[in-house]
Design goal:
Elements (H helix, E strand, L loop, with lengths): L10 H19 L13 E3 L5 E3 L1 H4 L7 E7 L8 E6 L5 E4 L8 E8 L11 E6 L11 E4 L14 E6 L3 E8 L6 E8 L2 E6 L6 E3 L24 E11 L5 E3 L4 E2 L7 E7 L4 H12 L1 H6 L2 E7 L11 H4 L5 H11 L4 E4 L2 H14 L10 E5 L4 E8 L3 H8 L6 H8 L15 H10 L3 H16 L4 H16 L11 H47 L3 H14 L4 H13 L3 H14 L4 H13 L3 H14 L4 H13 L8 H15 L4 H14 L2 H17 L3 H15 L7
Parallel strand pairs: 6-12, 17-18, 18-19
Antiparallel strand pairs: 1-2, 3-4, 4-5, 6-9, 7-8, 7-10, 10-11, 12-13, 14-21, 15-16, 15-19, 17-20, 20-21
Helix pairs in contact: 10-11, 11-13, 12-13, 13-14, 14-15, 15-16, 15-17, 16-17, 17-18, 18-19, 19-20, 19-21, 20-21, 21-22, 22-23
């Protein structure tokens, strides 16, 4: 686990930190956990170069996985006791220090007057009188802090252990903020003192050690609660499910007929007792469920048992289909029956893992309630009753507030509105799960909705009507009697309404374009992951069409052109990116690369020089330009002096740490005619390459070294 950043750091360090957090979260979501049994450690200062591990002998090494620590003299006996907060039970543990010693202590409580009241930040030095055989003692120093360690705050009393000393010869308090100092002489030990800023003496306090400890164990009455047979989750934001396809009892793939209202996909198995009980209960209420428009599809998972494989059609011989059919007939089960395949389970698991943070395998029985649009409205883990289904069917057409009121576990008021979940969230979940086709289908479905013809004038007018009392109040006021004044006010009002309606329409257009951009961006990523370069190109073109001023969009389109072997279009796209932002470093580098691939090295040199004018220390441009000037096969393009200057600047900036930069420097030295230094530099590059395990690169550099030994420069 990375340490939390404490100051502004480089982006790559922050990204590594966030990546580690994401990986930790994923591990927890997938079932990993902290062990919760880490033992505490305690180390003794031996006044030498090492500490002594006294964890066991002190009794502090309990497996509590402790976090917070508070130090306080709880029983006023002169030694510090400990309170610990833990991740596991007991959540709080108290350690009373009962060590019997003849040592002494000094306890100080500070009170600020000019500084802050609690004197946070004060520095206290306690000087002890050395014995005749001792050298002058080092002062005991403490700073008063509001909190220390992880989420911890100890007592504001400063506790000093004095050993066998019975007197504090001198106490110096440096108060925070005010710059004042208080010096106290000869304070007797084993007492508690209050010291007030500005006063020359300390006030001794009487403390009582009459602390009552109860060893009686208190009994706790445990109230038995009924065990939940199922976990029911009603979704405030319903998730779209990819089209359901199952295998019927004859082994033929089949799609369910779309019901007028709802579908229940029920997963079960012949060996699952609760599943069979659930099926019987639902069959008993067949008429009531059908009357309410529910179509139940009971899908057996027997074909998907461990070792059965993923191809349902080829694995139907692993179970006795006749026996399964007979079982269903014995139940007189009136609903649709079939087999679930791996693809359907994957789609349902994706929705499940999107709803629940903990990513677990689907239990049996498990049911998904779909509305008329095929969206998941509720998930039942465990057996669900017919009455619960009928209650939830009544919520399918209810508004968000009604659903929230009916499904929340306790009464209350909602403070924040429930935001509508974008269908792209489900598509992204499919993508993360590796179901790229399903993700693509979901994006295309949503994009079709966004692209559907909408009368934006009508929509903006409707919104204006809803807003009219607030945005155009003058329309609702009585008009003046004079016709000229009436005409003027009417025209003014109409102009106001038209301008506001136009502004609303503009926002609607921007909203639709934003959703289109999100769709095409996800389609482009999906196409790239499926190695569909043509499909990605279509999406990238649409993105640039919608956002022609986006440098990132132009760069992505240019690279897509490169993958489709369309260099002229790539050059145009990268050039447009530079026109939009003359400091777009990557656009120069990509454009230069295209020119190099087109054997137009002269144009690549121009682009690299343009970038170096703006960013003189850009490492990739320095390296690539130096390499061209040192190794080009065209005599007119080579320039050993310039190549050496650029390569040397790169090495000075980056350090001689990478084989590639040293290889470029060696090539520049050879072109310049200094072959001895070229060989020495190349030897350094070869050593680095071998150290990094880049054996192929090292072999190439060895061959190049032979050229330099023969006083021959390298040519591309």
């Amino acid at each position: 686990m990375s340490q939390s950043p404490t100051e502004s750091t480089a982006n790559d360090e922050v990204n590594r930190y966030l990546t580690n957090w994401n990986e930790l979260g994923l591990m927890i979501a997938q079932g990993a956990s902290f062990s919760g049994r880490e033992r505490n450690c305690c180390f003794l200062n031996t006044h030498s170069s090492q500490f002594a591990d006294v964890s066991a002998i002190t009794g502090l090494d309990v497996p509590d996985d402790s976090r917070g620590l508070a130090l306080v003299d709880w029983d006023h006996d002169g030694d510090l006791d400990l309170w610990l907060s833990n991740r596991t039970g007991p959540r709080v543990r108290f350690f009373r220090n009962d060590q019997d010693t003849a040592n002494h202590y000094l306890a100080l409580q500070l009170q600020g007057t000019k500084s802050n009241r609690d004197a946070i930040g004060a520095r206290v030095e306690v000087y002890l009188k050395p014995s005749k055989s001792e050298s002058p003692s080092v002062p005991l120093i403490q700073t008063l802090r509001a909190g220390e360690s992880f989420l911890s705050q100890s007592s504001k009393w400063l506790h000093f252990g004095l050993g066998d000393h019975t007197l504090a010869e001198r106490v110096v308090i440096r108060w925070p903020g005010s710059g004042t100092t208080t010096v106290l002489q000869n304070l007797p030990a084993d007492r508690h003192y209050t010291i007030v800023e500005g006063q020359a003496s300390a006030m001794a306090l009487e403390t009582s050690r009459d602390v009552h400890w109860s060893d009686e164990k208190q009994s706790v009455e445990l109230i038995e609660e009924p065990t939940r047979a199922a976990t029911r989750t009603v979704l405030m934001n319903r998730r779209p499910l990819s089209p359901v396809v199952y295998t019927n009892l004859e082994g033929i793939p089949e799609k369910p007929t779309q019901p007028p209202r709802a579908t229940l996909i029920n997963l079960w198995a012949t060996w699952c007792g609760p599943c069979l009980e659930e099926l019987r209960a639902l069959a008993d209420h067949d008429a009531e469920l059908r009357q309410r428009g529910l179509n139940v599809i009971a899908l057996s998972t027997d074909l998907l048992q461990e070792g059965a494989g993923h191809d349902v059609e080829l694995q139907t011989d692993l179970v006795n289909r006749d026996a399964l059919t007979q079982t269903m007939r014995a139940f007189d089960y009136p609903f649709t029956v079939g087999f679930a395949d791996q693809q359907l389970i994957a789609a349902l698991s994706t929705i499940h893992n999107q709803v629940y943070y903990a990513q677990r395998s689907l239990p049996l029985p498990c049911s998904f309630l779909l509305d008329a649009q095929g969206r998941v409205a509720a998930i039942y883990k465990g057996a669900v009753s017919a009455q619960q289904l009928m209650d939830d069917l009544a919520l399918l057409e209810a508004n968000t507030e009604t659903i929230a009121t009916r499904t929340r576990p306790f009464a209350g008021s909602r403070v924040l509105n429930v935001e509508e979940l974008s269908p792209l969230v489900a598509a992204e979940a499919y993508r993360e799960g590796g179901y790229l086709k399903e993700a693509q289908a979901e994006v295309e479905r949503y994009l079709a909705e966004v692209m559907a013809t909408h009368d934006l004038d009508q929509m903006s007018a409707a919104l204006m009507g809803a807003l009219r009392p607030t945005v155009a109040p003058e329309i609702t006021q009585p008009l003046p009697s004079a016709s000229s004044e009436s005409d003027t006010l009417t025209k003014k009002s109409m102009t106001t309404v038209e301008s506001q309606q136009a502004a609303i329409k503009t926002q609607l257009v921007k909203l639709r374009e934003r959703e289109q951009l999100r769709c095409y961006d996800l389609l482009a990523r999906l196409a790239r992951e499926q190695r569909d370069v043509a499909g990605e190109l279509v999406a990238r073109r649409k993105i640039v069409e919608l956002a022609p001023q986006s440098v990132a969009a132009c760069l992505a389109l240019g690279r897509c052109y490169m993958q489709n072997r369309m260099p002229e279009e790539a050059i145009e796209s990268f050039s447009h990116a530079i026109e939009l932002d003359a400091s777009a470093r990557q656009a120069y580098l990509d454009l230069a690369l295209v020119w190099q691939l087109q054997q137009r090295t002269d144009r690549a040199i121009e682009v690299y020089r343009q970038l170096l004018v703006r960013q003189p220390d850009e490492p990739e441009a320095l390296n690539n330009l130096a390499w061209i000037l040192a190794t080009s096969s065209h005599d007119a393009l080579r320039n050993g002096a310039d190549a050496l200057t650029l390569a040397q600047r790169l090495c000075d900036r980056e350090g001689r740490r990478t084989p590639s930069t040293l290889s470029t420097l060696a090539a520049a030295l050879a072109e310049y005619g200094d072959f001895d230094k070229a060989v020495t530099t190349l030897d350094e590059a070869i050593r680095l390459a071998r150290t990094e395990g880049a054996d192929d690169l090292a072999a190439k550099l060895v061959q190049r070294r032979e050229l330099f030994l023969q006083h021959q420069p390298f040519r591309e």
